[in-house]
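Late entry, iron/sulfur cluster complex.
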Amino acid sequence: MKTFEVPVIYRSPLISAIKNSRKQQDRMKKDFTPTTLDFGPLKILLARHFGFCYGVENAIEIAFKTVEENPGKRIFLLSEMIHNPHVNNDLLQRGVQFIMDTSGKQLVPWESLNETDIVIIPAFGTTLEIESQLSSLGIEPLKYNTTCPFVERVWNKAEQIGKKDYTVIVHGKPNHEETRATFSHSRFNTATIVVKDMSEALQLATFITGEKPAAAFDQYFKGQYSPGFDVEKDLQRVGVVNQTTMLATETQAIADYIRQVMMEKYQLTENNIGERFADTRDTLCYATNDNQSAVTGMLQVPADMAIVVGGYNSSNTSHLVELCEEKLPTYFISAEDKLLNAEELLHWDFHHKQELHSRKFLPVKDQVTILLTSGASCPDAVVEGVIRKLLSFYGIEDKADALTATFANT
Ligand code: SF4
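Prediction complete; structure with ligand written out below:
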């Protein structure tokens, strides 16, 4: 896979040494067991895959290069570059401005932009409406485009099946930038609806079967379907794609469920289900799959707790937290500064969107075992910072350097 020029501040010698060593031993990426870092009183089990994905590195490379190559120009990002505060703050400090916040609220009025400005499209992509807004201002919308190719692959699939008269069901968070972009591209070709989870998929099924009347549709899916959506006509042939960072198992479960509903409603078999349900299995993002599978692999090993590092508004990170929470006390932190001391930490409760202050998070025992991973937009340097901070609570921070040398020599 292509390698990118990512600023060295985001790299970590320790994590790079570990990742390289694992890669050498497992080139086909079949082994999802974690890497054991045994420091004596503290054992850290590091997920097999975590951190920057292809799309994030690609976006960072383009954005930083654009800043470097265009001194004196006004540079804007449509919204947050990726969902990580460190990367976004670094760009802000270099003079980059965000036109919108993550919820789509305008921060810089369109009318203040002109054709000499540079506008970067973030990794999530953007809507066709915003592309034409930029064009109307004389700004070439795709000149500085960091949309991830794996997101574009979803758009292409939606277009392909849309042109074959399938309605597109997008499994995603309706307000997430990527889902808004996918919805916009998809609805250009075909009827499109967003479902955010299995409970909404169950609701949608009641409209597919006719159990609920079309008149009630708006009550359940207001703002989540394309204009002119005809409940009776547009739910007869469907396909499911996803926001690439959703739980892969949930997308699969939703697709399997809708497929089964179509099979029963239209009395189809494995041989002719394609008449009503499009095959979209090849749209899942490799990084989301790898990171989630690595967490599942990590959770097979006994541990006391889990720490997941990433931006609080990062969708893919919250799904890693969700997986860990099913088995262990789990703390979602954005960086090492949230580990206040050996007794206290600040952590994000993504269910209720609030930061919590917890005490006595480290169990008192001879050896504490912590599972550690991070989201696809979190720099490895931040994960190393977390490891070093944890080691400092045991007075053994220097052990991190020795470990870097060990992995570098394997
Ligand atoms: S998580 Fe996947 S789709 Fe999203 S930016 Fe990374 S590689 Fe691209």
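Residues 54-145 form a domain with the Rossmann fold fold (CATH 3.40.50.11270). Will revisit in the morning.
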